Automatic annotation (TrEMBL):
<dbReference type="InterPro" id="IPR006311">
    <property type="entry name" value="TAT_signal"/>
</dbReference>
<dbReference type="GO" id="GO:0030313">
    <property type="term" value="C:cell envelope"/>
</dbReference>
<dbReference type="GO" id="GO:0030246">
    <property type="term" value="F:carbohydrate binding"/>
</dbReference>
<feature type="domain" description="Periplasmic binding protein">
    <location>
        <begin position="57"/>
        <end position="315"/>
    </location>
</feature>
<protein>
    <submittedName>
        <fullName>Ribose transport system substrate-binding protein</fullName>
    </submittedName>
</protein>
<keyword id="KW-0732">Signal</keyword>
<dbReference type="InterPro" id="IPR028082">
    <property type="entry name" value="Peripla_BP_I"/>
</dbReference>
<dbReference type="Pfam" id="PF13407">
    <property type="entry name" value="Peripla_BP_4"/>
</dbReference>
<dbReference type="InterPro" id="IPR025997">
    <property type="entry name" value="SBP_2_dom"/>
</dbReference>
<feature type="signal peptide">
    <location>
        <begin position="1"/>
        <end position="26"/>
    </location>
</feature>
<comment type="similarity">
    <text>Belongs to the bacterial solute-binding protein 2 family.</text>
</comment>
Amino acid sequence: MTSSPVSGRRGFLLAGGALGAGTLLAGCTSNAPAGEKQDAAVSGGGDNAAPGKQVTIGFSAPAADHGWLAAMTTNARAQAEQYSDVTFNLTEGSNDVNQQIAHVETLVNQQVDVLVVLPKDGKALTNAARRAMDAGIPVVNVDRVFDSPEAYRAWIGGDNYGMGANAADFIAAELRRRGISDPVIAEIAGTDSLPLTQERSSGFRDGLSQHDLSVSRRVAADFTVESGQREAANLLQASDRIDAIWNHDDDQGIGVLAAIEAAGRDEFFLVGGAGSSTMMKHIQADNRVVKATVLYSPSMASSAVSLARLLAQGRGMAALAEHEIPRSMTTYSAVVTKANVEEYLDLGFSS
């Protein structure tokens, strides 16, 4: 790959900055008349861990029928328990959208101080969240975004496009390391109708294209063990040769690995998605086809609770100069490999 014009220009600017730093500094400090007071620089400060006023956080999420979803609720509860100034009002998870709407409305009627909502369906929950905002209850929207920005005060979620792009980069590097040219690259996606799946696939395609590679075979599962096993079996049966596979989700990856073992295939390597402890242990042992997983960590639920607490207490983030909580935060999809897996084991969740 050739260097981009931006990277070349950045190198020039860095070099110029190193040569002229003293001159630039002198020029900046001499612009004001002698004796005139300079404006103070804005900086972060405070201690977000220090107790604030007592607040009640309402939490709503879908049923924990999936390892990642279960970990989201577990992480949120555990984070709330760390704060002596937080009362955590957890509703029962449900995959019935109407029931989740009712749960959110109940929390609003209870006049909680702030809401954290991971919607089953962002579009369907938008009006309920907007009613909370209209009632003066700030909403932290987690992962699956509402249809209107007026339905939430802050959003935190994963980088689906970045997941795909980072998976592509790892696969391209590993193929080069193995000396494989003209590779057959397969993709086992999640539910195709979901925007998050579409974003992951788009990032994967775009990432591969940066390395002059493309997806050769693609199937779509449904984020379940059963669908992962079924679609992986179909993929393997239809493909005599595969060099690399990216599987979007480590929960469905349990089924994918079962299909691979049943087929007796091991000529390829597999990259997972989300970062389950099961896949991380396979990566650590290095005795299966799975060689990496791209994080989409449920730790975002812990961060959502922390943000909700600060919102309800009228505080900003101590490490940032802004006085208010940011409007949105996107987590990073790090690639976990044998070289760094020990650093990320604490983020793993049970599949």
